[in-house]
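Before a colleague's protein record goes any further, I have to sign it off. My question to you is simply how this chain folds and whether the tokens agree. I do not need a full report, just your reasoning and any doubts. This is what I was given:
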Amino acid sequence: MELFFRKEGTGSPVVIIHGLYGSSDNWLSIGKRLSAKHTVYMIDQRNHGHSPFANSHTFNDMRNDLEEFFDQHNIEKATIIGHSMGGKVAMWFAADFPDRIEKLVIADIAPKNYLLLGNESQFYLHQNILLAMQEIDFSKITSRAEVDDFMAQKIDDKRIRQFLLKNVEKEKTSHLFRWRVNAGVLYDHLDEIVSGVNKSWLDDRIPITNYPVVFIRGLKSNYILKEDEKMIREIYPDTQIIDIPDAGHWLHAEKPELFIKAVMVCC
């Protein structure tokens, strides 16, 4: 699959992989900052942004897309920054292609099965979001404000709705609004998105010491808990875990200066 991407700067390559409902647009300010020393590629993953929609959305799909992207752009070796779902893609790709990894930076996700958290997992939140995205009738929508009004009936958190609204665009031919994410396919693959690339997936590679690894955690987020640190270090014995205070899951948007400072530790 030929992924849409944005490119900034010159120098050693850095590839940024967004998370669920994200896109390269969300990483432009971070990419521009890193472009002072690096060639920064910000990709849209399949079923997101301007990249093609497909009927499948597995971690193997996304790993293969990334391999194809590296080959298409003659990237022999790069630092990869992956956030949330994109962090799991980065870990899975790096495990299979260690020679293509300069450094691995994982933002606010752990290599664990989040389904095991039961009611405390994000599965039901995402399930609710994706169902709501599919239920909206865009033929009756005339503004983004109306999209927000509809989504507010399903999702209380205004910050989440504002993030989702970044995925609303007007189709050029019909002039109707639409989502830039393939909500139906993401819903169908939500189990794997939430559970996949956990420690059991990496068992035959442990310990992984081929490349430097940094985890960046938002201290107001519950994606990387204190009890996860032991498991992370069993997989990546030499890893650094850097905390960003007063930041939640979207730590790169909430605390960009501290996030850049943390990335610069390894880049």
About this structure: Residues 59-72 form the longest helix (14 residues). The domain at 5-113+197-266 is CATH 3.40.50.1820 (Rossmann fold). The two ends are 28 Å apart (CA to CA).
